[in-house]
Amino acid sequence: MSRGKDTSELKPRDRNLSGHISNRDETNEPDSKAFVRDSKNEKEEATKFRPNCDGDDDVFSSGEEEAMQRTAATRTCQGTSGRRLSSLDIYQLNHKEENVNYVLKGKESLQDVIEEVNEFEKREANELTEEQRRRLASNQKRAEVMIARIQKNNDKRRESLLRDLSEAQSEKLRHQQNIKKFGGLTREKRARLKQLLMQKAKEEFRNEQREQMRARENHLKKVCPPICTDNMDDAQLLELVKALHVRAVQCEAEKLEWEERLKIQADEIHALLQEIQEKQGRFLIPVLRKVKRK
């Protein structure tokens, strides 16, 4: 670059730098001292024109000024232009690109690291506060109690249903057995039939008693015919009484004889039944009498 470059196309900052360069050439001062003086003037002008700026990019520390002086001295020695370095130039000089190594340092693979990150995220998502844990525990306990209560009610209902079904089945089976036993008759029909049979038996018993009374009357009429005592005297009545007395004694003797015969016949029947039971192995249990101890 030549020193006589046109400054019309330069920015205000470049114009100031060009002015400083021209002044430095006129006064023939050393490059380093002129550079320091120009930087101080530029700082003052920058503070005048930008008093409300939040961050002053052109304000440098002592270390930066020394670095700028060294770079300016090297540039003047090398024959370059004496233009003041901007902050961008300083950043480019001091910045060093660092090679970022994305290879994992260690024996762990990328899949292990991803799994560890996922586990950490899951752990963070599953973490609950103490109150939430207490509430969750109480809700879980309440749910368990409700489930147990519902299960108990269901068991009771199932047992009652099974009991009812078993009772109904047993009643139905008993009813069928009774129907088969009594010829297909129900309980009501059996009661009705029993009532009819009792009525018929009572009627038959009454008829038998009436027939027995008639037979007795007929026999008495044959044995003791009616006697007419209207035309009898005392002697005839006395003979008739004696004859009736003899007849009564004879009838009494016959009655005693028949009673004795019936007793003997009952004893024979009882003895025969006892023999039959002994042959079948069924013995009569004797009646034991209580004896008082002395």
UniProtKB/TrEMBL annotation:
<dbReference type="InterPro" id="IPR038077">
    <property type="entry name" value="Troponin_sf"/>
</dbReference>
<feature type="compositionally biased region" description="Basic and acidic residues">
    <location>
        <begin position="1"/>
        <end position="53"/>
    </location>
</feature>
<feature type="coiled-coil region">
    <location>
        <begin position="158"/>
        <end position="218"/>
    </location>
</feature>
<dbReference type="GO" id="GO:0005861">
    <property type="term" value="C:troponin complex"/>
</dbReference>
<protein>
    <submittedName>
        <fullName>RAB6-interacting golgin</fullName>
    </submittedName>
</protein>
<feature type="region of interest" description="Disordered">
    <location>
        <begin position="1"/>
        <end position="78"/>
    </location>
</feature>
<dbReference type="Pfam" id="PF00992">
    <property type="entry name" value="Troponin"/>
</dbReference>
<dbReference type="InterPro" id="IPR001978">
    <property type="entry name" value="Troponin"/>
</dbReference>
<feature type="compositionally biased region" description="Acidic residues">
    <location>
        <begin position="54"/>
        <end position="66"/>
    </location>
</feature>
<keyword id="KW-0175">Coiled coil</keyword>
